Structures are given as C-alpha cells and as structure tokens.
Amino acid sequence: MMFISGVVVVSNTSRVMELSDRFVDIKKDGQWLVMFYAPYCAHCKRLEPIWSHVAQGLHNTNIRVGRIDCTRFTSMATEFGVSGFPTILFFNGEFQYKFSGDRTKEEIVNFALRLSGPPVRQITRSESLENLKTSNPLFFIYVGDNAGPLWESYSDVAEKFQPHGFFYSVSPEIVRKYVTVTSVPCVFVYKENSYYFFPANNSVEMEFLNASMFDWINAERFATFPKITRGNINQLLQTRKYLVLAIVEENKLLEIPTEMLVFRDMIESVITKNREKFHKWFQFGWVGSPELANSIAMSVVPLPYLLVVNSTTNHHHIPEDDPSQLTPEAVTIFLEQIHNQSAPRYGGNTLPVRLYRTYFEARTSLSEMWHGNPVLTAVLFGLPLGFLSLICHSICCADIMDADDDEEEGIQIHIFCTIRKSIMNVSRFSLMSWPGNLNSMWESYITGH
Fold first, then answer.
1. CA nearest neighbour of 175 among 141, 223, 212
2. Could you tell me the CATH number of the domain that includes residue 79?
3. Contact in structure between 257 and 242 (CB atoms under 8 Å)
4. 354: which of 27, 145, 370, 434 lies 20 to 30 Å off by Cα?
5. How far apart are CA 154 and CA 33, in angstroms?
6. Which domain holds residue 13?
7. Rounded distance between C-alpha atoms, residue 355 and residue 352, angstroms
8. How many angstroms separate the CA atoms of 103 and 39, rounded?
9. What does pTM read for this prediction?
C-alpha cells in the first residue's frame, strides 16, 4: 500500500486507487477516471471486478483510475453532482464528463480513451489508418486541409460528440489508398467495413451546414444493427428516428435460442438490403433482455417479438401478425405503414400513460424482488407496513381514549363542585345540624343535583 497526496493504492495487485476527499485538490493534475460508489450498492458490487479490468486496460496510458466511497466522504457526491451509484466521471483539467453507456470494460475504456485526447486526431501514416480499421469498428474521418467551413463544422460537432465517438482527420494522399474520394474536402464514416459519405454542399450557409453535420453524425454514430440495452437506448432515442427492435432473450452465457436467432437475423436482413429506403427514418437494433421491451410496451411481450418505438413521441407500434411468422416482405409493409402514419400506435407520453407506466414498473420490480428473494422482500415491505399499521392504530384509537378521558374528567369535576357546594352550605349551620346536612350532601350526590 502506498500514499500519494491523499490517494491510496488499494493493493499491490490492484491498479485502482482509493481516493479521499482530498481528490478535489488533485483532480486538475492529469486525467482521472473515477467511480463514485457506495459499499451497500448492489450495482456497485457488480461493477467492481469490471472496474479492476478497466484499470488494467488503461495501465499503459496517462489515465489514472480511482474510486471514491461516498458513504465515507459524503461531501464528494455534492461536490461533483453525483445523485446515484455507481457514477463514473472522467476529469481532464477543468472539464468533467459523465459516462452514460453500458458498464462493460470495452465501453468504459473507449469512453476514457476518446476523452484523453483532442476531439479530432490527426492520422499521419497509412499504417495508422489500417490499424484503426482493425481495432475500431466505427469512426469518422475528415479528408482535406484543416481549414474552411466543412472543417470548422466537423471539428465543432466532433467536440460535442467526443464522449460518444472517435473522430480523425487525414490527408487525401493517405486515404486514397483505402477508399475512393471524388472531392476534397469531405467527411465519411467507417462502419461494417463500408464507407458512408456526408452529403456536403459547399454553397449552403454555415448555420445550415452545422445543423446538417450534427444530425448526420448523430444518426451515423451507431452501427446499422446494434445491441440495444438500458445503457445506450437513451442515446439511440436522440436520433429522433423510429427504433425497430427485434426482441429476443439471451441466457447467462449470452446465447440465443435458434428460433430467436433466425428471427433476429431476418429483421437485420431488412435493413441491410433496404438501407437506402429505411436508414433515414429507422434505426434498427436488437434487444437481448425482454424486460426492456416489457417496460416500453407496458406488458409482457411474447418471444420473439417486433417492436417499433417513435423516439419523439414515445408511441410504439406492433405488427398485427404473429411476430414469429413474419417475413421480410411483411416487415417492409409494416414499416411503410408506420412511415405513412397509417399503422395503429400505442402508448405515448400523456399523463395517464406515464402513471400507468410507473405502476407497471413498480409492479414488475416488486414481482422480480419476490421471485428472487421472497424472505428479504417480506422483511423489506413487512416491517415498514407493520410500523405504519401501528401508527395508524395509535392515531385512530387516540380519539376514543381521549373521549373516555374527557368523560371521566367531567364526572370528577362535577363531583368536586357538588361537594364544594355542600361544604359551603354546611358552614352556614351549627355543628348540631351537621348530620342533617350530611344526609343532604349524600342525596344530592346520588340524584345528581
């Protein structure tokens, strides 16, 4: 174990640094990838071995990987705006970026590597471009001199999307060895071993060029048929396209049953064979977790299943035919109906739908907790309900008890007043008349007068 300005290396075998509240003073010194966690958090415990692999993967870089226990250093969560655990932040000088993708080693490492350098990196050798194609399945490239409207637009948008993609610039001489470039400058994206060019128009105004570049990069930064999870679906929704989701179920070994695999491949073939027709309006993908689809549809969907989500209105569409019996032709017709707005739609973002979605999510979560650990679920909900019932019983019974106390107190006051009145009357007579007055007092008490 060793100490470095308030930083503690967890062990000799771990490359993750355990940070303290003194991290505020050293965060500007270099680049940091930090996980804010709580020891009781189940998600944090699942991320712990992955985080160790992330630290190992970034060992040969200038990025230092650490973690902060927010139960010990509570001020750190407030200092960096952490509202949930685990939260992953990248620090580069004055800049701070939040990770919002899938919590896998590859996603987290790429996130850190993208932010560790400039938004646009220069490729100076043809070998570098060849290695890039081998190591990175998707990236953007600007071809030409680093000047002019197209370059300014490209570099500006690249800075905005730096946490989500890799951006490069290269000279025409280097890139022509790999791809045919008809005009310079130009911008293209490399994915699925293909090149797709940005439809540039040098005669347009700069404002329109920036908007077009932003929309194009925002749409092309995803693969043609990616796996969609809770970690990346929010980014996909920002494309403002229809999301065409092939719903299947993976087991713990990430294996898919044969019949579901055939269905998924069939949906993928629709976009690969009709890219020019559907790519502008639809983003295809597949989901390996039915729970995500159930949350969108607000019902338990059969498997395999086809679900199309409108990313701007949150409506969803489902085919009238049995999804397992769909053909590429039927899927094509179904998508055309959606594009023409003639297909039935469900869900949305109205208040009743949001309320029902909240109810469905709560019911689903409770059901999963009960099936996973019924004893713990009974304790978690039984104890609070037991205390609540005791509180309600005390509140309700307090009125009855107060009423009984008030009635008893009234009787005691009445008796006291009667006795006091009788004593005053006694004082008016001689001692010889005391027995008669005592009888009068007793009669008054008995009769209530």
1. 141
2. 3.40.30.10
3. no
4. 370
5. 27
6. 3-114
7. 5
8. 18
9. 0.78
Pairwise CA distance, residues 326 & 103, whole Å: 34
Whether the bond between 86 and the residue before it is cis, its omega within 30 degrees of 0, is yes
Q: Is residue 161 included in any domain, yes or no?
A: yes
Structure tokens at 381: 């909900």
Query: Distance between CA 415 and CA 417 in Å, rounded?
Result: 5
Contact yes or no for 301/248 (Cβ under 8 A): no
Count of domains for the chain: 4
Helices (H) then strands (E): counts for the chain: 16, 17
Any domain includes 226: no
Amino acid present at 69:
D
Q: Which of 245, 272, 275, 248 is nearest to 262 (CA)?
A: 248
How far is residue 405's CA from residue 396's CA, in Å, rounded to a whole number?
15
- What CA–CA distances, in Å, run from 391 to 396, 399, 400, 404? 9, 13, 15, 20
Profile the chain (449 residues) by mean pLDDT over runs of 10 residues: 49 77 90 95 93 94 95 92 94 92 94 96 91 92 94 96 96 90 93 92 77 96 95 94 97 92 97 96 96 92 95 94 91 97 92 88 78 72 80 73 51 49 44 42 41
